[in-house]
Description:
By secondary structure, this protein is mostly helical. The protein contains four helices and three strands, in the order αβαβαβα.
Amino acid sequence: LLPSLQRCRKLRRLSLRQNGFSAYCIPQLLQALEGAALESLDLSFNTSVTPRAGRYILSFARSQEKLTSLNVEGTQVFASTKAILVSVLAERQLNTMRKKRMISPEGASE
């Protein structure tokens, strides 16, 4: 799977929901996805994904400019890490809308 993902640079959405991924797999998976045009990643209900893996996921989310959706529900990722992920992605969504000139920089609708 990982070599195939490394070649999918135009990949926009990936659902790996309930696939039995472990904390050990997460850094390798995220490394394979670096450089992709990923907008949405679903890692939910991989119950062996630990809080430590959550740190890798957060770092990945911060480094991926196009990523606006990342689901880690049903994992062991701390609620505090999930809250930071939500904040990072919400800010990115807002910035994306601003770039598309859907709203003004002040947050008011045009």
